């Protein structure tokens, strides 16, 4: 890395290449962070996580008993050993909290004054962070599995909601009502995601094994249904094209919006080209997936062979997106993992599971040695002060007429 | 503790060895099979997947089947040799498009595909099927032209001009299997016998591993154990099969490769 820094100074290498190389190196070398922790306040399994996109300071988590917690991630204590403290929470016994489990949480993409949560009590609540009270509540007919608000939408404030009824609802925050119903699925919808490139492109996945792409401005039905065989290998009697051979559990766009990853209960992960809708035919192997609800997973940022972190049973698996090679398995949770998200600025992974833990995975090789040295220097200072008090130091060459002070 | 990826190459520091043409020539002489050398003078070497296919073909015990079966390889066996599954898939599709190999979908699992070299297949069919004109026409037209795993009834009757009687002849000979109301899977004669010994052999190998303490066994120890007589495919064939299908996990130890059953 020092050689690379010298090359950047000389102008041989672009600064972006240095960022890319170091981000890639850190993203590949994740392990459980020994010095940083998140305060253990959860009373039930954690279902959903989100880190705010503006400052990367607050971690919002939603639990299976309806409670919500916000932790502060920034470390101003001066030592690398740090526990992220709870800033505020919504207890499950409050009148305004969700009655059943919270399935999905999201910060408002532009500041931390607002966040949205949705859950199994068929409601979507918009919360004011400063009062920790819901500013608005939307009730639906079906249980809400996931909701998402676009990070780039400047002209609209639409929240896409995927529920257990067959259509996707678009809720407008400015007017306070449901504006659209997107009909196209024949069974309950499990996942929905806005594209990070086009502010009107929405991808949805459902229990009828299909992934549909929508342009919400169009009056007609969906743009495309993604087909896992790309049109071949199908008999003429089967008219429908499915994306997976099981329920579509999770969707994630890459950060440039060019590719879409979909995760299904047929234990497969598929990579799709967003603009042509083709299956890129990348073979990730079999990734065990037995959950019937939405799984949140994430892709690394600014990394050159991009990696995806998949929660699968109790482990988190790391795969290269374009080649499908499995890089590593992160073991740490005691029970199944529900969601993994990457911090927007640092190369850290936060994962939440049914064992009520939120774990931090980071690549901190230098920090651990620096902290160990710091601890050692602390203990040495303490020991040397102790020694002066307890023992009488005998200096054999001392004499009674000369003094220690300098003359 | 799982092996962490090495740090050396993120800044482009370590030099990657690139295969030169002399290495390619060595490969061609070792596997010196005239059929597999490509026509163009620049790519006369085998790709990794082709080399793996040739190796697996050697491992198939033809003598156990007394010539009733050509060498049949499963696609996931190649995954046990070459780590990058996507590149294997792409090369297999390439070879299928060129017509060098043919893929068949066998009905036991969703993704079990079987590979046979086209020449072997043609020999096998001419050997084992009754000499009817419909079958010859099928051999010349359909097998050469349609590279897919299945075919529609409309296509057979319309473009290729096969009558209902022809289609029943083909099904009796074992070349077509019913898929749904209007389409057929391609198949080969004596496919049932292959499937029977394959399934029995796989179950017996998995049972052997499950009976061991901690459900794990060293690979060379497994190779020394005897299989039952009904499993005619040989233990090495099945080892490649279960590693590629991810039913066992390979762990590198100081005494060799350890095969441990995955939980499901």
TrEMBL record, chain A:
InterPro entries named among the record's database cross-references: Rad28/ERCC8/Ckn1/ATCSA-1, WD40/YVTN_repeat-like_dom_sf, WD40_PAC1, WD40_repeat_CS, WD40_repeat_dom_sf, WD40_rpt
Main localisation: nucleus
Subcellular location: Chromosome; Nucleus matrix
Entry-linked PROSITE patterns: WD_REPEATS_1 (PS00678), WD_REPEATS_2 (PS50082), WD_REPEATS_REGION (PS50294)
Pathway(s) it belongs to: Protein modification; protein ubiquitination
SUPFAM superfamilies assigned to the protein according to its UniProt record, in alphabetical order: WD40 repeat-like
Highest taxon listed in the record's lineage: Eukaryota
One GO CC term, this protein: Cul4A-RING E3 ubiquitin ligase complex
Pfam families: WD40 (PF00400)
Gene Ontology biological process terms from the UniProt entry: proteasome-mediated ubiquitin-dependent protein catabolic process; protein polyubiquitination; response to light stimulus; transcription-coupled nucleotide-excision repair
WD repeats: 95-137, 182-224, 241-282, 330-361
Sorted UniProt keywords: Chromosome, DNA damage, DNA repair, Nucleus, Phosphoprotein, Repeat, Ubl conjugation pathway, WD repeat
Function statement: Substrate-recognition component of the CSA complex, a DCX (DDB1-CUL4-X-box) E3 ubiquitin-protein ligase complex, involved in transcription-coupled nucleotide excision repair (TC-NER), a process during which RNA polymerase II-blocking lesions are rapidly removed from the transcribed strand of active genes. Following recruitment to lesion-stalled RNA polymerase II (Pol II), the CSA complex mediates ubiquitination of Pol II subunit POLR2A/RPB1 at 'Lys-1268', a critical TC-NER checkpoint, governing RNA Pol II stability and initiating DNA damage excision by TFIIH recruitment.
Subunit structure: Part of the CSA complex (also named DCX(ERCC8) complex), a DCX E3 ubiquitin-protein ligase complex containing ERCC8, RBX1, DDB1 and CUL4A; the CSA complex interacts with RNA polymerase II; upon UV irradiation it interacts with the COP9 signalosome and preferentially with the hyperphosphorylated form of RNA polymerase II. Interacts with ERCC6/CSB (via CIM motif); promoting recruitment to lesion-stalled RNA polymerase II (Pol II). Interacts with KIAA1530/UVSSA. Interacts with a subunit of RNA polymerase II TFIIH.
PANTHER family assigned: DNA EXCISION REPAIR PROTEIN ERCC-8 (PTHR46202:SF1)
Protein name: DNA excision repair protein ERCC-8
Organism: Zootermopsis nevadensis
UniProtKB/TrEMBL annotation, chain B:
Keywords (A to Z) from UniProt: Kinase, Transferase
InterPro entries linked to this entry: STK19-like (IPR018865)
A GO biological process held by the record: positive regulation of Ras protein signal transduction
Pfam families linked to this entry: Stk19
Keyword Transferase: yes
Molecular function GO labels: kinase activity
Family: Belongs to the STK19 family.
Protein name: Serine/threonine-protein kinase 19
